[in-house]
């Protein structure tokens, strides 16, 4: 009996090892790797029509679906979401308009309310992997973003190429070009200056937002936004796969992280590296050199089982390190943080690093998971803190 149990156990282990080895083999192929990193075929809105935002809980004509052209993708599917108080002020006229997809968004009242208001603020929303603009906790997130100024803060969200109704195939270069196209639309078509734009991002979107923020900061003349918010960011793809657990429990490549040489070899097969640690440092370094005012907020929950909060702590160090001419080691910075940290009890902790030009803020929450946090008041507060600092007249 013991022999049979040992035999079946050995067979089971061999099968599992074989499956895992097969998974590793698949992960070295670009196509399969893209599906794992971006999860773009998992829409999570199969039974709803994105052209009917009302089915996601919006009021009639509060959200306008439309398309933005991108050099990486033929078209990007986007939503322009009106803040609730502004909607209330123009409810009758908005309800009288046609709802649904706008072939020409510039003809819609919602667009004119954004373009023609010199005090309007715009949040460009960069979502995470998988899903569409209407998936999961993203809709509550949009409400939290505009809640602090419900007559002024508009939200522009979109699906990257290959996601939802946006055409194309996702890649690091492609997603960056898509986001740049959306920023160009906001500044050139809607006419909103960067000083009234906030870049909000979560998970995968944080890597895109850092690439975009860096891109525009490096322009001549530079374009620097009112601020950038990163929720549940990651250091880079190599560190992400070394710590990532599917559904918070099934390790992907973390078991192999114990074998540095093997893990380093597998890392050579990573197509899209998303080096956020380097981009955040370059973004800060560029703004400091140009003496441009900037604001950067990193938010992470300790109970995030998808991306551990340690990623934010490392990114925060890379950002701060870029402000120091001589640099500061991670261990040295941990001591500095401990002395300047504000303990908020059950709400978590906050650390701010200020220079003559910028504010870098780290918020580590006790709870919030990976997605739930997006609809919490901490998001509204982060948005208002950035907009009010950029323009104290906004109150």
Question: Overview of this structure, please?
Answer:
The chain is 41% helix and 16% strand. The protein has one domain (42-233, 276-390): 3-Layer(aba) Sandwich (Rossmann fold). By secondary structure, it is α/β, with parallel strands linked by helices. Mean pLDDT is 90; it is low at 13-17. The longest helix is centred in the first third of the chain and has 26 residues, at 2-27. Helix 6 links the parallel strand 3 (121-126) and strand 4. The relative contact order is 0.11. It is globular. Residues 123-278 form the AB hydrolase-1 domain. It comes from Imshaugia aleurites. This is AB hydrolase-1 domain-containing protein.
Q: How far is the first residue's CA from the last residue's CA?
A: 76 Å
In CATH terms, the superfamily is Alpha/Beta hydrolase fold, catalytic domain
Protein structure class: alpha/beta
Helix content class: 40-55%
Whole-number tally of structural domains: 1
For the record, the CATH architecture stands as: 3-Layer(aba) Sandwich
Which outline best applies? globular
Identify the strand order in the major beta sheet: 1-2-4-3-5-6-9-12-11-10
Strand content range: 15-25%
The biggest sheet, with number of strands, parallel, antiparallel or mixed sense and barrel status, is: 10 strands, mixed
- Would you state the CATH class? Alpha Beta
Number of separate strands? 12
Unreliable sequence segments: 13-17
Taken in chain order, the helices and strands follow as HHEEHHHEHEHEHEHEEHHEHHEEEH
CATH topology, by name, is: Rossmann fold
Number of helices: 14
